[in-house]
């Protein structure tokens, strides 16, 4: 059984691979841009737009602004689509087809029961996807606007559920992905024709991408992240040219040598559903001493040396952002200074003056 010091050592190595250790400065490598961060991680869970943008921005030594992340979405250097488990994720265009090829078959199976209960008609799917593609040929549209195009083509509107399911299939079939934000409304864009991948090769690509951006990790973590069977994940990891390490009794995989550990005392204010904690927690050593309130999961976790040290929330105002942290332990002066530095970086991301205080985490700005 790994000791606490073993777990800290593993988590500090994972902080480095997931881009939260020593941060990437301009000129370091391809990872010093918004798209580079997403590419390094393989995909970034992003159903909460504001928080997930921070999760990307904070991995740069000078954090990107919210507008810069939205700009990368607008120009297509990153895309937002339903892939992997599936929920919204950011991906770069080169990773979209293999990740979707690896995961879409099991996603479709998972959707089948609900589709039967709602009477979803697959026989008209191709025709409706053609209407969607024609509508998007002139540029991005909101879901509501696509619904209008479907209603005009068929003489009757689709209800919200059937329209949403149509667009989900259009994403799974690599016809559409996210377009630029239009105010607070998301849009869809038409994708160019994608390279064909066979499923085995795509699963190997997925395994390599996950381990590169999240290791050291287990094959079970690859299975969880990519909605793969454990058998398929183990096979993909074995074929991906990765390196197996036995650490404190755990079989872990990395992209070569184990990453250099993040500096001791590294403290981060993590985004909601941050990729650092996107793995299968079953049989993984505990990352908290006494458990934690579930509400922290939905506002954001505070991580110190890769362990869960608290939760945080933020309230955006006209000129300021009020950041509240709720910690499991009394912070040392060094940890508090690190959290103050994180708060300053979050303020730069928002373009607001930050204040940092301790207290119970309550309702804050998430999406």
From TrEMBL:
Top-level division of the source organism's lineage: Bacteria
Pfam family, one: AlkZ-like
InterPro entries cross-referenced by the UniProt entry: AlkZ-like (IPR009351)
This protein's name: Winged helix DNA-binding protein
């Amino acid at each position: 059984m790994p000791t606490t010091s073993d777990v800290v050592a593993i988590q500090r190595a994972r902080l480095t691979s997931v881009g939260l250790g020593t941060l990437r400065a301009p000129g370091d490598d391809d990872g010093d841009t918004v798209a580079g961060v997403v590419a390094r991680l393989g995909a970034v869970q992003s159903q909460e737009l504001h928080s997930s943008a921070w999760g990307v921005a904070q991995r740069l030594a000078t954090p990107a602004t919210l507008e810069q992340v939205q700009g990368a979405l607008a120009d297509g250097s990153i895309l937002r689509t339903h892939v992997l488990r599936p929920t919204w994720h950011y991906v770069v265009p080169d990773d979209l087809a293999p990740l979707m090829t690896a995961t879409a078959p099991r996603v479709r199976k998972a959707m089948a029961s609900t589709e039967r209960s709602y009477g979803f008609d697959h026989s008209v799917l191709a025709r409706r996807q053609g209407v969607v593609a024609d509508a998007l040929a002139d540029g991005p549209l909101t879901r509501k606007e696509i619904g209008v195009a479907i209603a005009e083509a068929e003489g009757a509107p689709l209800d919200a559920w059937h329209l949403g399911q149509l667009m989900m299939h259009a994403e799974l079939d690599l016809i559409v992905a996210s377009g630029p934000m239009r105010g607070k409304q998301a849009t869809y864009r038409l994708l160019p024709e994608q390279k064909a991948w066979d499923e085995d090769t795509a699963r190997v690509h997925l395994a390599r991408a996950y381990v590169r951006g999240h290791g050291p990790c287990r094959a079970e973590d690859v299975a969880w992240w990519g909605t793969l069977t454990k058998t398929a994940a183990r096979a993909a990891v074995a074929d991906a040219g990765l390196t197996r390490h036995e650490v404190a009794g755990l079989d872990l995989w990395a992209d070569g040598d184990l990453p250099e550990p993040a500096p001791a005392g590294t403290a981060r204010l993590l985004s909601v559903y941050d990729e650092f904690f996107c793995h299968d927690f079953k049989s993984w050593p505990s990352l908290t001493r006494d458990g934690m309130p579930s509400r922290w999961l939905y506002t954001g976790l505070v991580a110190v040396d890769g362990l869960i040290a608290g939760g945080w929330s933020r309230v955006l105002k006209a000129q300021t952002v009020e950041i509240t942290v709720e910690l499991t332990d009394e912070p040392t002066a060094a940890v508090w200074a690190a959290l103050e530095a994180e708060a300053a970086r979050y303020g730069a991301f928002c373009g607001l003056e930050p204040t940092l205080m301790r207290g119970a985490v309550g309702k804050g700005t998430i999406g």
